[in-house]
Amino acid sequence: MRKDYTILIPQMAPIHFELLEAAVRSSGYHVQLLRECTQKTVETGLKYVNNDACYPSILVTGQMIEALQSGKYDLNKTALIMSQTGGGCRATNYIGFIRKALKDAGFENIPVISFNIVGMEKMPGFKITVPLMEKLLRMVVYADLLQKMLTKNRAYEIHKGETQKLFDTWMEKCKKLLEKSSNKEFKQSIYDIVNDFEKIELDTSIEKPRVGIVGEVLIKYHPFGNNFVADLLEKEGAEVILPDFMGFAKFMCTHKITFNSLLNTNKTSSKIMKAAIKLIDILEKDVKIAISNSKKNYLPPCDIWHLEEKVKDVLSIGNQTGEGWFLTAEMIEYIEHDIPNIVCVQPFACLPNHVVGKGVIKTIREKYPNANISPVDYDPGASESNQANRIKLLMTVAKDNLEAKQKRKQALESENIETKKQEETV
Ligand code: SF4
Questions:
Q1: How far is the CA of 219 from the centre of ligand 1 (A)?
Q2: Suppose 63 and one of 10, 81, 147, 348 were both cysteines; which one would form an S-S bond, judging by CB atoms 3.0 to 4.6 Å apart?
């Protein structure tokens, strides 16, 4: 397929997949990211996927069929690629959904490549080699970092549009660096990104409520899938925080380790996964250093072992289906980093996320009384006004809580000044 096939990738996370396309292209494959996603895509998805399927699978299948029907691609030289996680949710069975949809739509001969690292399906035309894997890991590091830079600086920038401009510049530079760069150049680029964004002047005279987004992996990153929730939150006066994709990758690596400790399964794969997490931590080391030197209070990359320990108070780490315990852990991570406001995006027909998302909110609120969490449902026919109302309500509470916190801080400061004065008089 490397020679003459066009491989179509459905959109999931725009920042990450923009770089993913560049990383895979530089490995010799002609891949094409399907950037378009509209109401027509949803309708196409609904036509070919049973309507009891989860919303992300409808969106993904809709994108693929729409692209094949567009007439843009030579159908004898086009393939589709889809990730398979190997867990218990539909993310493992997408391939089946897609193949059935292709048959019904008259595209039976289009190959579907399973992108998985657990050996689920053979991929004769596509190989995940060590250099490709390295590029993919670097691309996640870049995308996570650029995402942080974008949301933080855009919320407070003095000169409107400055952050987006710098972000676009670095997006292009990162694509080139993914094509070819030494370890030294990769490391240096991390510091250069943070330093460049540090130059953006911010107006922090009015503090904004920080709102984190958690939820199913496609719905939390895909702006169309979540009805542009990040834009809506920013419009309502929030600083939006999106989770790092690398956290999800580290969570995936813990699966085999947990299997081994809870079910006494294969020790070797457990050891390999521990090594993989160590490797990712090494890769993220410079990001941690670079953002700790910044004055802008970015959320650092997560420590998966710390989160795993913390989450055990709420649910078993045996919850691995879908986002599994990691979704709950992300909420805890936000709260621990003074981000008490959380939108939990829930796709229609996603059982796992209703357990590890909506299902744990009551317990989290009991453990962390300052948590302001709002679950919001997303499906093909969801009422946009219902979603907007929930978000507006969350923002009202977030603003009130922030004001109360600032008043408490001011009162404490004046009390301290008063005590100091009295001590000096004595
Ligand atoms: S996690 Fe939920 S929404 Fe995502 S693929 Fe699985 S079932 Fe579907």
A1: 9
A2: 10
Contact 211, 331 (CB under 8 A): no
* Same-domain status, 230 and 322: yes
Beta strands in 186-308 (DSSP E): 210-215, 239-241
Per-residue pLDDT of the chain (426 residues; tens, 9 = 90+): 777 899 999 999 999 999 999 999 999 999 999 998 999 999 999 999 987 888 999 999 999 999 999 999 999 999 999 887 767 776 677 788 899 999 999 999 999 988 876 666 667 778 888 999 999 999 999 999 999 999 999 999 999 999 999 999 999 999 999 999 999 999 999 999 999 999 999 999 999 999 999 999 999 999 999 999 999 999 999 999 999 999 999 999 999 999 899 998 889 999 999 999 999 999 999 999 999 999 999 999 999 999 999 999 999 999 998 899 999 999 999 999 999 999 999 998 888 889 999 999 999 999 999 999 999 999 887 778 899 999 999 999 999 999 999 999 889 888 888 888 888 887
Q: Are 212 and 111 within one domain?
A: no
Closest atom of ligand 1 to 350 CA is 2
In a domain, 88, yes or no: yes
What CATH number does the domain containing 215 carry? 3.40.50.11900
Q: Could you tell me if residue 382 is inside a domain?
A: yes
The range of the structural domain enclosing residue 347 comes to: 208-244+302-426
Q: 119: buried, middle or exposed (CB in 10 Å: 19+, 13-18, 0-12)? A: exposed
pTM here?
0.93
CB contact burial 321-341 (16+ within 10 A = b; e otherwise): bbbbbbbbbbbbbbbebebbb
Among 51, 57, 220, 248, the mutation site with the greatest number of ligand 1 atoms within 8 A of its Cβ is 57
For residue 216, the CA-to-ligand 1 centroid distance in Å is 7
49, 90, 325, 328, best to mutate for ligand 1 pocket (most atoms within 8 Å of CB): 90
Main-chain phi, psi angles of 106, to 5 degrees: 85, 20
Residue 159 lies in a domain: no
Q: Is 353 in the pocket of ligand 1 (CB under 6 A)?
A: yes
Same domain, 225 and 354: yes
Count structural domains, the chain: 2
